[in-house]
Amino acid sequence: MQQHPHHDPDTIELPTPTAWPIVSAFGLTLLVAGLVTNLLVSAVGFLVGLLGTVGWFSDVFPHPKHEPVPVNPDRARPAPIRTQGRVVQMLKQGNIPHRAHVPTEFHPYRVGVIGGLAGGLVMAVLACIWGVVFEKSLWYPINLMAATGVPELGASSLKALHDFSAAGLIVGTIAHVTLSILVGLLYAVLVPMFPRKSEFVLGALVGPLLWTALVWSTLHWVSPMLSQGINWPWFVFCQIAFGAVCGWVVFKSGKMATMQSWSLAQKMGVESQHRDEESH
């Protein structure tokens, strides 16, 4: 092992910096990239990698190269940091610490289902009003909803959607109820993540507008006829009504604390002695 005597007390010998490892890595990158591009790239990468490897090993073998690095005298060094004794507050069971996972409270899923059904009912009534007033047909919005799932309705003209269709009524009702429940569950999950002061506004306005933008941008690819038959201003109004009703139901419901705020006994399902005495 080579010895490096220190002749100057204000310097220390450290390994000499070298860029050859980076050159070797670059050559290896070119070597691999040439396998999927051109063999000429691999040839250049091999030469660059070989050059970097030779230069790297020449700096390390037979003895690593060193260079003197000046060391600041004691008077120029910063004063050491002294720590004072402190008391660490341990986390207590049943309390929500500052490291809690947000949200700390959530709405039950049944509230989302109820809110979705309530909003879907209001939306269905408004859609039927639009069909009777503007299209002179109660079945037009229902058949329009079912057009993507019923091939006969999807292949027919917009005038044919004004007539009653049993398949359209069944498929449209199932699709509307299913989507209402799913969106209601989505509201129940997302509302606790919103700021408390703007939960209702975000749920009633921002959510429906985002959903309308998504439907408007993709519906002409799924069903061009359905995209042409929708009255988009009324559609936005119905979506906002759905969001307002569903958001109000979810917002007014009570929240439940997540399990992270439960005590260990509650998480394990162990009943306390006080509860046992009350049950007897």
Automatic annotation (TrEMBL):
This protein's source sits in the domain of life called Bacteria
Task: Provide the alphabetized UniProt keywords.
Answer: Membrane, Transmembrane, Transmembrane helix
Transmembrane ranges, per UniProt, are 20-48, 111-133, 166-188, 200-219, 231-251
The name on file for this protein is DUF1440 domain-containing protein
| Lineage summary | Bacteria, Pseudomonadati, Verrucomicrobiota, Terrimicrobiia, Terrimicrobiales
